[in-house]
Amino acid sequence: NAGVMQNPRHLVRRRGQEARLRCSPMKGHSHVYWYRQLPEEGLKFMVYLQKENIIDESGMPKERFSAEFPKEGPSILRIQQVVRGDSAAYFCASSPTGGDFQAFFGQGTRLTVV
Amino acid sequence: RKEVEQDPGPFNVPEGATVAFNCTYSNSASQSFFWYRQDCRKEPKLLMSVYSSGNEDGRFTAQLNRASQYISLLIRDSKLSDSATYLCVVNAGGGADGLTFGKGTHLIIQP
After folding, report:
1. Which of A57, A101, B92, B110 has the fewest CB within 10 Å, making it most exposed?
2. How far apart are the C-alpha atoms of B3 and B27, rounded to whole Å?
3. How many contacts (CB atoms, under 8 Å) link A and B?
């Protein structure tokens, strides 16, 4: 049973380009969470999704960031027109249910904006 | 979103010593509590859940104090491999909030 799979592991983008980060949850998990970790900082919640629904996006910046979790395929975190401040590690976690659960994390995608 | 506060450290502790961390949370409605461990540039991994009655797993003991809204982690007979960042994690329940992470406490075990 594969764990949470994130790809790419490392992503380099020039300022103004788009970044697409993918997350395939563990088999049987229908809840996905995205977190961002800036250098020397803690993890910050971004968005919580279930299949085809955004449940809580209170941690998402209002502009340039979007997330989806389609019926088929991985969850996608999309960052348009990236800026240097977007450079961070982006972690995805999945769980079988919401509420009281233990989240399992992917290895993260390290985004570097040059 | 509600806050979870931790002392960032670093805690420099000699091998074999006992070390304890505390974490406070602001949302009194929080229902689930966890300690995660994160090694440098790696993903967080669940260390242990924290139950109301407290729980122990080998050298690790976790306690919950709901009245004072804090969680503790005690590590006995510390090993060099315990060096990591320890994240206090709270889930407010209801399914909508997900997990709220503290910024972590950095532990360095010295030989």
Report:
1. B110
2. 7
3. 65
CA distances to A41, B83, B93 from A31, rounded to whole Å, are 25, 31, 14
Q: Is the pLDDT of residue B109 over 80?
A: yes
Q: Using a CB-CB distance cutoff of 8 angstroms, which residues of chain B are in contact with residue A9?
A: none
d(CA B67, CA A58): 28
Whether A89 and A24 have beta carbons less than 8 Å apart is answered as no
**Residue B72, both tokens:** 């503790």
Q: Tens of pLDDT along A10-27?
A: 999 999 999 999 999 998
The predicted structure's pLDDT at residue A111: 97
> How far apart are the C-alpha atoms of A33 and A99, rounded to whole Å?
12
